[in-house]
Amino acid sequence: MFNLTALPEGFHEDPYSIYAALREDTPVCPQPDGTFVLSRYEDLDLVYRDTTRFISDKKAVFGPKYGVDSPLYEHHTTSLVFNDPPLHTRVRKVMVGAMNPRALAQMEPGLITLVDSLLDEMQAKGDVELIEDFAGAIPIEIIGNLLGIPRDERGPLRDWSLAILGALEPQLTPEQEEWGNRSVADFKAFLRHIIEDRRANPGDPETDVLTRLMQTDVDGGLTEVELYQNCIFILNAGHETTTNLIGNALELLERHRDKRAELLANPNLITTAVDEFLRLESPNQFGNRLTTEDVTFHGHTIPAGTDIHLCIGAANRDPRQFDQPDEMLLNRRPNKHHAFAGGPHTCVGLTLARMEGRIAVGRFLQRFPDYQLASGAERGGRIRFRGFANLPARVR
Ligand code: HEM
After folding, report:
1. Cys staple from 342: which of 48, 115, 140, 197, with CB 3.0 to 4.6 Å?
2. Per residue in 236-248, pLDDT tens?
3. From the centroid of its chain, how far is CA 304?
4. pTM of the full predicted structure?
5. Whose CA is nearest to atom 19 of ligand 1?
6. Measuring from each residue's beta carbon to the nearest atom of ligand 1, which residues come in under 6 Å?
């Protein structure tokens, strides 16, 4: 039986055949620690929408996992994603407002300039590493701009974000836990002077998320801890996920040369193609919810107070929802995948992420139509987040 803490050999290379068996044979899959995995599209859809029976608050889960006095506990129980109303609504309103169409349109020219400069640098090198030189370099700039983090101070952000989100994995070594705790503490210390500076010199609240978070008076505004931890969350949320979207897309287009040719012949397909990359290789493969009462799926009852794992990677290939679920159809429509979850916690940054994917992958392909992956590709090795740590390539 599928066990999140004892994955079969070869899982990271191809989790999808394992997910298919899980989805078909044990759609309500008990885990040794009393949690359950759900993997059918319709079940995830129901859970995301029903915020009465399935809540996001994780205090009951993260208390035993991290210890209630730890920096990781403070972070993960204060960020909006692991909260329900009222904190969730309060923070979300501010963030959604900052992702308005005007703010996103203003970001697009800067994004194109950034992508083109990275492409120039890669062209000069010839042999490149697609995560460090490209996929990882884009989101950090975009989110750094969104929060107004000075460019020369962005260096440590990527490692902090990997450590803090990495601590959400089902199983942690003491070293990973220590790295996560240290990263939350360092990140908070780093934000202190940025927040103090912004208090003295507020930015444009239309586009500057940090100024918005500081100035909001929705339901009395945010406490200091809420402000810090939600800044950290937004920096992390938009980072590794978007890196993985771009890296996974470039790997998919290497494996499916016919699709690469199709996209080159018809570049307008890039918009629907990005959603197909997100469906097939979802950067975020698992989410969680806690049951507030006994709930029954397919004749199996999950007790109240149970942590459930939502397997997005399996649901996004459910044949009940998607025709030819394992095929990459660049113009797939409709494509109501759950890569951005669903319901009231649907990803706040989805339009921004799609824009980054469209511009990064689209322009990369136009510049390097014959790119080839080289040996040495290394997967991130995580269950929750799916992507590459290294993706060497030749672009000349
Ligand atoms: C391809 C890139 C991305 C993917 C796959 C992704 C995926 C997700 C998912 C699955 C969730 C829901 C988690 C849950 O409730 O279980 C989420 C929430 C969130 N994401 Fe994203 N995300 C991406 C990019 C971004 C970006 C660029 C930003 C910000 C600029 C962002 C900000 C957020 C925020 C603030 C939430 C919390 C929403 C809430 O709880 O109401 N994400 N994301």
Report:
1. 48
2. 999 999 999 999 9
3. 28
4. 0.96
5. 347
6. 56, 80-81, 92, 95, 143, 234, 237-238, 241-242, 245, 283-284, 287, 339-341, 345, 347-349, 352-353
